[in-house]
Design brief:
The chain is of the alpha+beta class. It is built from eight helices and nine strands. The longest helix has 25 residues, at 257-281. The two termini are 25 Å apart. Residues 52-56 have low confidence and may be disordered.
Length: 282
């Protein structure tokens, strides 16, 4: 296997010792299994912007912090420096989110290092020590689906308490590790308080969990956890140990038609991408 240039640089610098194999190649990065001393880690090598299929939508990048006003102006104008700054901000968003969430006890891979567009983090494995599968590759019993759905809802709550919304959570970016599900792929994570689209993204994330696990446990399809979680967050009543009911009373006096249409558009886009992903793994 030819070692990518950026991983060769990490070997030369002594940050890793060996590249074992390629683990997967996705829309935003290629992931490798690497060795560092006695540790087996994974190295996420981010693709250049012109090689990625994932669009850096303005919804995700809204209100992301940059170093200074010059950088912000360059990013807005789309200059060469601005494009480089945008790319760096996109990559660092995942790094920042992982460190923030790991510190909050969220079930994410523990980050170890970030250098030259390469993120080193824990390799998530199954009970046999092999790299963990994504949950869309696994068939669950109804009881297993309810258990994992409950675990992931608690992680969504813990994330929101830490001020983060995943923004692209689905069965394609959750691994089933030896001790349960682990959330991955966070470059599109948004600040819950600073992004006007955070509520819509949170509802979509929770809705994706409901739709997937509801295929194994149909009773989940009638739940309203997303709205319940966001309402608790909005009222300052959300905390990691909160008891959720899955019930929510909607206020029908005011209807945000624009928000409804965006949710419909998001659902259509998610379904189209889901079909493409299933075709790719099929």
């Amino acid at each position: 296997m030819k070692v990518p240039k950026r991983l060769s640089s990490l070997i030369e610098e002594g940050r890793i010792d060996k590249v074992v194999r390629q683990l997967m190649s996705g829309k935003e990065a290629t992931v490798y299994v690497v060795r560092r001393g006695d540790e087996t880690l994974c190295a996420k090598v981010y693709k250049e912007a012109n090689e990625r299929s994932f669009r850096q939508a303005v919804d995700y990048t809204e209100n992301r912090k940059v170093r200074n006003s010059r950088q912000a102006r360059a990013m807005a104008k789309g200059t060469r420096f601005g494009r480089q700054a945008t790319e760096a901000a996109w990559q660092s968003a995942e790094v920042d989110a992982l460190y923030r969430l790991a510190a909050a006890g969220v079930r994410v891979p523990k980050p170890h290092d970030f250098c030259d567009g390469v993120l080193l983090m824990d390799l998530i494995t199954n009970a046999d020590g092999h790299s963990a599968p994504r949950i869309h590759e696994v068939v669950f019993t109804a009881d297993e689906a309810l258990e994992h759905h409950g675990t992931l809802l608690r992680e969504v709550v813990r994330m929101l308490c830490a001020g983060v919304v995943h923004g692209d959570l689905s069965e394609f970016n959750i691994l089933l590790g030896a001790d349960g599900p682990v959330i991955i792929d966070l470059p599109q994570a948004v600040d819950a308080a600073g992004n006007n689209h955070a509520k819509r993204m949170l509802l979509r994330d929770v809705g994706n969990l409901r739709g997937f696990f509801g295929g194994f446990a149909p009773e989940l399809l009638e739940t309203e956890y997303g709205h319940e979680i966001w309402d608790l967050f909005r009222r300052g009543a959300l905390h990691p140990e909160v008891e959720l009911t899955g019930r929510f009373e909607h206020d029908d006096t005011l209807v945000d038609l624009g928000g409804v249409m965006r949710e419909i558009d998001d659902a259509r886009a998610d379904e189209a991408e889901r079909r493409l992903r299933m075709q790719a793994v099929g």
